[in-house]
Amino acid sequence: MGWSLLIRNGTVVDGSGAPGYAADVAVEGDRIVAIERRLVGEARRTIDAAGFTVAPGFIDIHSHSDLFYLGCPAAESKLRQGVTTEVVGMCSFSPAPVHPARKAVTAAWIGEIGSRLAVEWETFGQYLERLRQAKPSINIVHFVGHGALRLAALGPENRPPSAGEQQAMERLLDEALEAGAFGFSTGLVYPPSAYAATVELVALAKSMARRGGLYFSHIRGEAATLEAAIDEAIQIGEGAGVSVQIAHIKASGRENWNKMDAALRKVSDARARGLDVHADVYPYTAGSTKMANLLPAWVHDGGNARLLDRLTDGAARRRLVEECAAGGEAWRSVNGSLGWGDIMIATCSRPEREGLRLSELAARMRKPAAEAMLDLLLEEEGQVAMVVFSQAEENVAKALAHPHVMIGSDSIGLSVGPGPHRGKPHPRMYGTFPRVLGHYTRERRLFSVETAINKMTGMPAAKLRLNHRGLIRTGWAADLTLFDPKTVKDEATYADPHRHPTGIPYVIVNGQVVVDNGVMKPLPAGRVLTA
User: Fold this and answer.
1) What is the DSSP string of 203-269?
2) What domain range includes position 173?
3) Assigned domain for 528 exists
4) Which end of the chain is less enclosed by CB atoms within 10 A, N or C?
């Protein structure tokens, strides 16, 4: 009896961190069924992998594609990087649950980071069923966002929950876990998640501990408050008895670059105490988020409509500029002090502005940069994405090399070209994983290819407790990526981000070849995985 797929003559790097070895890999249906130095047998399809590394499909441990799957289920820009599984529902954002009376509020909140979802569900289970109906090409691991829980239970107000509202959040979290969520995430710089005190988060985490839920956190600050924010994340995990993941660990703002060693040491020290704490990182010195996040929390109180009202209020604008403008040359925020040339418009409604730095926009508008930014946000109803250049290359390398830090793109999966998302999005949407393999592994020799692949496969799979995924093993899921270690390279740049990488000719999801000799085949091969 023949196999459905046979991969011959490759070098298998199995995801465990062990040295690579020459072997053939046979697939039948959606499973790996044989791994031998030389397999004898017939297959309906044979791929000659001579010169290629055969790795488990990469797991993007921190992604935001859930905001775009319904319009872009192929997630092409991720699959062509070798990613076969994405972890979504991050940074407190998830499309569910939704209070029936607050669907418009939730849609506007989601829209702040670029999505235009028609919210047609209420429960997390209903949303996951809608996601299955979209027939994604990629596997999906979903968390529920704390922001969504808070909006559903008490709305966008900046206040502590009542006892009943806390219980409502815990009930909604339990319903999401029952439906298949792997845990909950926070984005403690993003309202309404930013309004939560530590005690609220510990109580939520405790409520899911019996189910083994995971706590993933965009911590309360990555700049001046970096160390205290990591302490809080660890405190929540320790107090509740749950596993912790610190999202896109970084030291943001030049004045905070010297904090990176201490931040990474906190992860190591917590693990030395027996706590299950990890972090993830993307391999770039720039980050990306919504531009409205540059505004302090009081501006967001009450939701996007109230934010826009404040931007039209002269007194509120003066207060904003007095609080945040640093001598007119920079802006102080949770991201640290940023020069106007460090902030680039990624997407907005006017293509001629996309790719401009705020310093350039201010010159065009002939007004101070702070006023130009506030006018832009008002004109775009708060829905502007930005790229922020705020990190040190040395710190990015330190985080990548840390033994308990894995790789996450912090981005979405797009189709190439104009597709569903034009503009100048962060190149990590197209280049994260090949950049690690090409720039940091082959060129900089920061670590071995086996270590790099472990950070992308076996390590995140173990963190998520995925069943039979993340390693190349007989009987395990046939999620596989084939790449050329001599040529793999990210091609996306800040100026020209919509470019797929080179050197990744084949990507296989659940036994189906979705990237075939460099050509995308948007098959419904993916699955919504459940905890």
Assistant:
1) HHHHHHHTTT-EEEEE-S-SSTTHHHHHHHHHHHHHHHT-EEEETT----SGGGGGGHHHHHHHHHH
2) 59-288+391-463
3) no
4) N
